[in-house]
Amino acid sequence: MTVHSTSPQFKQNAARALNDDQLQKALGNVKQGFIDKRQMAAAKLPEFEALRDAARDIKNHTLEHLDLYLEAYEEKVRSSGGHVHFARNADEARDIILGICRDAGAKTVTKGKSMISEEIGINHHLEANGIRPVETDLGEYIIQLRGELPSHIIAPAVHLNATQVEEDFRRVHTHLDAKRDLSEPVQLLTEARAVLRERFLAADVGITGANFLVAETGTSIIVTNEGNGDLTQILPKTHIVLASIEKLVPTLEDASQLLRVLARSATGQEMSVYTTFSTGPRRSADADGPENYHVVILDNGRSSMLGTSFEEMLRCIRCGACMNHCPVYHAVGGHAYGWVYPGPMGAVLTPSLIGVDKAGHLPNASTFCGRCESVCPVRIPLPKLMRHWREREFERHLTPATVRSGLQLWGFFARRPALYRFATRAAMGVLALAGRQRGRFAWLPMARGWTKYRDFPAPQGETFQARWKRERQGARA
Amino acid sequence: MSARDDIFANIRRSLGVKGSETIRRQIVADRLERAPKGVIPKRGQVSGEDRIALFKTMVETALATVTEVASPAEVPQSIALFLRNHNLPATLRMGEDPRLQAMPWSETALEIAQGPSEGRDLNAVSHAFGGVAESGTLAMVSGPENPSTLNFLPDNHIVVVSGKDIAGDYESVWNRVRFAYGKGTMPRTVNWITGPSRSGDIEQTLLLGAHGPRRLHVVVVRD
Amino acid sequence: MSVLPLQGRPANPRVGLFVTCLVDLMRPSVGFAAVKLLEDAGCIVDVPVQTCCGQPAYNSGDRGTTRDLAMQVIDAFHGYDYVVAPSGSCAGTIRVHYPELFEEDPNWRAKADALAARTYELTSFLVDVLGVTRVDASFDGPVTYHDSCSGLRELGVQTQPRRLLGSVEGLSLVEMKDSDVCCGFGGTFAVKYSDISGAIVDAKARNVEEAHAPTLLAGDLGCLMNMAGKLTRDGRPIQVRHVAEVLAGMTDEPPIGVAKAPAVK
Questions:
Q1: Among A391, B70, B142, C225, which is least packed by CB within 10 angstroms?
Q2: Chain A residues within an 8 Å CB radius of B17
Q3: In angstroms, what separates the C-alpha of C84 from chain A's closest C-alpha?
Q4: Which residues form the domain of C241?
């Protein structure tokens, strides 16, 4: 059991998003910022394309030897004094984490940003068991106050405007002066910093995700700009790392290669502000740091993606470049996708994790424009993988009946060139005649989706093949 | 079957391997041992003054400030000046780093506190393990010498880095870490720090000082 | 038309024109413009009997139908020196995706590879293969150009049409914002997810309008019909044409979505 999904209602979600003026305004920020910044960062580094190749190759190599790198990693974590737990699915991961929190006598748990923790719905589980989870990434904190899922994997609150954040802070931070000025974003940040600082200092357990796990040293790596992931892990007595199996990389050198493409692809920074390499609990001489270090390694369907065409998706390093460049994401935002992972990477990953019967719309809702693949730092062929999902849907008869029968009829003619030429010649003649007056149709019975938003241009009349035959082949004969 | 065994079995089934294949084990052991470097950007592959200059430029690109002093003895005065110029109180917290301890702090009016931060300090100084010119990144290692809390809790974080510890690339820093701690062994925490804390989570507006320091100031010691 | 001689190709290559189903049915004048451009460059053009490259089936997950149609195209276009399509999307299907269809059939895979290697989008064929540097055509006024996705990202079609347009007398190219961003067509996507497609083409139409060029060009009829349909629906008086029509100097036919003027009595 994982977080509830509204992916089956993708179309309704999308329609609502398109009519949400506030959301549309916020989505303008995605189009503006991320794309230019990534472009500039890539242009400043002549080796960027070579690094993308290297990043892809490192991930492929690791996935092909994943069992062995996992073994090596596990051994290193244990020898540095940490604990490794394995979870087949979300239920097991939640119970392991709850158990560690209970052993620590935890009342408050701070959290660094972790998409895996969204995937397993840990916050709800902790709350239901009397433990208070506090998201500390500013964006995650805001959406936790609102009871929402992140709408973007690196900018969780990108769907919101500052005035909405102000309303939420006034609603929740009731201990503060009601007349305080919160009209500037910096005032919102300062308030969140002060409120969360107290939570950091009070927390009993800190949970972070991991961008990478290093087999060579048993190290977990997190990347943040705020520093919240660090305060989450160095202040409480217990640090829990929650990571999925594909986060493994062999060595510190391999991690460094991937880090060179991660921030540039995500935010256009040369390097994120804080890249933290954590290995085991605090050492005996250390003055600070957690006394206990646990790693929870989650499978949740990923091991079954290995050896299939979807193995390529396990290269993903969660930079968000694909959604930043996606015209569909720009139009509807992240929540329309209906589960944890939005945009092109979500359109491929979500059907693997919750089933294509539920998430079938996602790989279909793409124009295959290919912009996602062109910016992916690990060169995942996202359109190709979306097409693979469409093929599976077609094979399993999950494709809508109207689409299937339309395809069948069209395929019948397209396979028979002589009949096709005869039929299209007649049809285009009729259509051209009907559209002669205006040169276009404002409404067509077979294409209502099309004509709802745009005219359908009328054909010129005679088909190319008919005219060619008449003019050229007729002339030659 | 335990979850662990189940996951390993499923990985191996999907990959079509047993896990005992000598060749695969050899490939993995070899890569872990050799740690091949991959693509190293030319940008950082400069030496001497050029490397220091690149480091300083990149530190500033990351919105931190940087200054240079000729010897460790000049560090306290330089930091005192920095605090005064920014109207900050003359207080400073630091760890047990012998390089910092040996500096003449008594020549300044700074009130020095020792040990990790509990979250109420405005200013702290740490000594970096090294720097990386390629991106203006500081490499910090945890320990009683430089507690990790000093990197994150104070509002103003000052980092002293020795010019000779500034490398061109991350890989050179990892080599030094291996030399200092042993191959395959790490300090509890290595922090790469590139600029002061920031967030773009509210309307994609860049704001400094999200949870960590609002200011990051780097002092390069040319000894 | 100026042609630089390139080594290693026949002086008068035999080109099989892959008309594309949309040009065949909707706007044959684009096909004849392509023929003129190819013949002016010294090609011997032939048009074997054809229907569709199979992309609608391929993108709908129907590999069986796609394979049938691909085999049909492979057979029909056997024996030509080159296959050229006035579409990056259809050329991309043949060049990039046909080989993927026959991964388990070495015999057909070899044939698909051979066809893929000889298949080009029109403007890239003229510039990259034939070495054409200029065309004999004139066009009055500024135009703006939309980069269709498959041509741009699967085949690298970007500078070639611009270079040729630069040689058209009287024409000036005004770049629009986000010319490389999808117009929202996406084949059946435009019908299956019409709300989203409508929003994407709306953004595209705004960018087209803000370029302040009275004419919009592109190299793919699907995208052109989408954008033209949106522009006429919104009452934006921008003429939309396939780039081949302008390059061939064949702009007598009314723009896409516009009726023929009634004969003067």
A1: B70
A2: 67
A3: 15
A4: 133-247
Distance from CA of B7 to the nearest CA of A (A): 7
The answer to whether position C255 is within a domain reads no
* Domain B43-221, architecture per CATH: 3-Layer(aba) Sandwich (3.40)
C226 and C178 together in one domain: yes
The minimal CB distance from A465 to the residues C47, C150, C192 is found for: C47
Cross-chain CB nearest to A273 (options B4, B11, B197): B197
Query: What distance in Å separates residue C3's CA from the closest CA in chain A?
Result: 25
d(CA B129, CA B148): 13
CB atoms within 10 A of CB A272: 26
**Both C203 and C137 in a single domain?**
yes
Q: What residue of A is the nearest CA neighbor of B185?
A: A217
- Whether there are 3 or more C-beta pairs closer than 8 Å between A and B is yes
Burial of residue A203 (number of CB atoms within 10 Å: 0-12, 13-18, 19+): buried
Q: Are C104 and C145 contained in the same domain?
A: no
Q: Give A363-388 pLDDT, tens digit per residue.
A: 999 999 999 999 999 999 999 999 99
Closest residue on chain A to C72 (Cα): A415
Chain B, window 16-55: residues with a beta carbon less than 8 angstroms from a chain A beta carbon: 16-17, 19, 24-25, 27-28, 31-32, 35-43
From A142, A226, A254, residue closest to B211, measured CB to CB: A226
A273/B205 CB distance under 8 A: no
Q: Which value, in Å, is the radius of gyration of the alpha carbons in chain B? A: 21
Closest alpha carbon to A395 in C62, C192, C101:
C62
**Lowest-confidence pick of A12-21, A190-199, A374-383, A399-408:** A399-408
Binding partners of C (≥3 Cβ pairs within 8 A): A
Same domain flag for C118 and C191? no
Q: What per-residue confidence (pLDDT) applies to A402?
A: 85
Q: Does residue C146 share a domain with residue C239?
A: yes
Q: Which long-range contacts (CB under 8 A, 24 or more apart) does B24-29 make?
A: B24/A65, B24/A68, B25/A68, B27/A65, B28/A65, B28/A68, B28/A69, B28/A72, B28/A250
Question: Do C124 and C147 share a structural domain?
Answer: no
Average pLDDT on A152-175 reads: 96
User: Within this chain, do residues C192 and C227 fall inside the same structural domain, yes or no?
Assistant: yes
Written as six digits, the tokens of B22 are 């000598």
From chain A, pick out residues whose CB is under 8 angstroms from the CB of C233. 442, 453-455
B88: left (phi over 0), alpha (psi -120 to 50) or beta: beta
Partner residue facing B202 (CB), from A70, A185, A256: A185
> Residue A391: what pLDDT?
97
Would an 8 Å CB–CB cutoff place A420 in contact with chain C? yes
Q: What does pLDDT average to over chain A? A: 95
Residue C237 and residue C141 share a domain: yes
State both tokens at C121. Answer: 């989008």
Is residue A1's pLDDT more than 50?
Answer: no
Instruction: Write out pLDDT tens, residues A308-348.
Output: 999 999 999 999 999 999 999 999 999 999 999 999 999 99
Amino acid at B100: L
- With a cut of 60, say whether residue C17 has pLDDT above it: yes
Q: Does C150 touch chain A (CB under 8 A)?
A: yes
CA B130: distance to chain centroid? 7
**Residue type (1 letter), C70:** A
Please state whether the predicted TM-score (pTM) of the whole model is above 0.90: yes
Do C and B make contact via 3 or more CB pairs under 8 A? The reply is: no
The tokens describing A306, both together, are 């290995």
Domain range summary for chain B, segments of one domain joined by +: 1-34, 43-221
pLDDT given at position C7: 61
Contact indicator for A207, A232 with CB cutoff of 8 Å: yes
pLDDT tens sequence across C163-203: 999 999 999 999 999 999 999 999 999 999 999 999 999 99
* CATH number of the domain bearing residue C115: 3.40.50
